[in-house]
Amino acid sequence: MTDIFEPEIVAFCCHYCAYTAADMAGSKRISYPPNVKIIRVPCTGKVDAIHIMKALEKGADGVYVAGCLEGDCHFKTGNLRAAQRVRRVKALLEEIGFDSRRVEMILMSAGMGERFAQTAREFTEKIRELGPNPIRSAIQEQARRAAG
Amino acid sequence: MITAVRKPMEEIIACVSPYDRILLVGCNECVSVCSAGGRKEVALLSSALQMHFLKQGKTIEIREMTLERQCDPEYVEELVNYMDGADAVLSMACGCGVQTIAARFREKPVFPAVNTTFMGASERQGVWSERCQGCGDCVLGITGGICPIARCSKRLLNGPCGGSTKGKCEIDANVDCAWQLIWDRLKALGLEKRIEDVIEAKDWRTSRDGGPRKIVREDLAS
Asked: Do B51 and A53 touch (CB under 8 A)?
C-alpha cells in the first residue's frame, strides 16, 4: 500500500483576522485539513523571517502567514511588513535552491471563515503536489543512518 | 554607520563548503543597524546554510555568535574559547571586523559574508545612502552641511556642473545634485554669497592618496 503524503503546514495567523476567521470557520462547521497547525500571533508584523526559516529547517512542508486585508491592520502596517518579509524569505529560499512556493502570504478578514478553510485546503493540496520538504527527508535519512 | 549587504548565498556557500564546523560571527554595531550582519541576520544565514547543506545530505555544525564590536580586539578575544571547535570563521561584520578576527586568529580561515559598501546614514526605514568618504579634511562647514565629496558624482568642490538638471544629477534622475542641495541649504541659511567663494584644490593626501591611514592619540595609546 502506498503511503499518502500528509503535509505538515505551519500557519502564522494574526489574532485580529485569520485566527478569528479560523474560529469563524469552526462556528460555521466548515471543515479544513488538520494538516494546518495554527500559531496565533498578535499581528503578522510580529512574524520574523527567522520564524519562517526555522519552521522549514525543522521540517515543516509549508508555511503561510495569514494577515489582515490591506488597510485593515490593527497596527496599521504590520500585514504589509509581513508581506515584505515573506518576499524576502522566498528570495532567500530561491538562493539556496529551495522551492519558494512552500511559503506564502495570505490576506483575509476576521469574517472570512470560508476563505480561511478554502485557503487551508488549497495550500495543503499545493504542498501535497510539491511533496515532502527535502530537509525533512534529509533529517529522517540522517536519523535512520545514525540508528544504524 | 558603515553599511553592508549580504553576499550572494552562492558565494558564501562556496567559501564554507569545504568545512564541517563554522563559527558564524555577527557584529552588534553598524551592520546590526543596517540589518546586514547583526544577531538576526546571523540566525537567518545560519538557518539558510543548514538547510542548504542538509538538502545536500551534509551535516555541518554552525555556532552563532554576535560580538558587541568586531573591529575591537577586546571583543574579538571573546571568540578564543570557540576557535578550537571551528574549522573556519564566517564573519558578517564589515571588512574591519573580518580583518580584526583574521589578525587575532591567524591559523583560521576567515571569510566575509557581507560586502562592506559605504559610510552612510539612514534616509528612512530600510534605506541607507552614502554620506561620507572619509577624505580626512572635512568641508561640511563651508558647504552647508552637505558633502560634495560623497554626494557629488564628480566630487566637485565648485559646482554644480552642466549635468545638473532640475536638481538632479545626470548619472541618474533619482540622484540629487549635491550642489543643488548645497545651494538650497546655503539659501535657507541666508549664506547665498558663499556659493561665489572659490574652494581651493583639495589636498588629497589626507585621503587614500596618502596610503593606508592611522590615527595615533598619544594621550590614549598604550
From this structure: yes
Q: Which three cell numbers mark B127? A: 534605506
The residue extents of the domains of chain B are 2-118, 133-209
Instruction: Say which CATH class B2-118 falls into.
Output: alpha beta
Q: A16 in helix, strand or coil? A: coil
At B121, list the grid cell.
546614514
A121-142: pLDDT as tens digits: 999 999 999 999 999 888 888 8
User: If we measure between CA atoms, which residue out of A130, A132, A119, A145 comes closest to residue A8?
Assistant: A132
Sign of CA dihedral A129, A135, A137, A140: negative
| Contact list, B54 vs chain A (CB under 8 Å) | 57, 135, 138-139, 142
Interface test with B, best of A96, A100, A133, A136 (most B CBs within 10 A): A96
User: What is the pLDDT confidence band of residue A148, given thresholds at 50, 70 and 90?
Assistant: confident
Q: What ipTM goes with this model?
A: 0.93
A84: nearest CA partner in chain B: B126
Domain A9-147: CATH architecture, name and number where available: 3-Layer(aba) Sandwich (3.40)
Q: Say what the pLDDT of residue A142 is.
A: 80
Structure confidence at residue A83 as a pLDDT band (50, 70, 90): very high
Residue count of chain A, please give it: 148
- A16 DSSP β-pair partners: none
Distance (Å) from the alpha carbon of A109 to chain B's nearest alpha carbon: 27
Other C-beta atoms within 10 Å of B197: how many? 10
Average pLDDT, integer, range B14-25? 98
